[in-house]
Amino acid sequence: MQILILAAGESSRFWPFSEICHKSLLKIGNKTLLEQTIDGVKGNEIILVINPKTQLSEDILKNKKISIIKQEEPKGMADAIIKAKNAIKDEFLVIMPYYVNIKEYLPKIINVNAPAVAVKKYEDDDEKTHGIARIDKKKVVEIKEKEKFPGAEYSIIGIYRLKKDFVANLEKIQNTQYSFETLLNEVAKTTGLNYFEIGELPSLKYVSDLLSIKKFVYAEIKKQNKVKPKLKKGNALIEKSVILGKNVKIGNNVSIKGETYIGDNSFIGDNALIRDSIIGENTSIGFGTEIARSIIMDNTHIHSGFLGDSIIGQNCRLGANFITGNRRIDRKTIKIEIKDSYDTGLTSLGGIIGYGVKTGINTSVMPGTLVGNNSIIGSDTQIKKRIESNKLVYNKKENVEKDI
Question: N or C, which end of the chain is more exposed by having fewer CB within 10 Å?
Answer without folding.
Answer: C
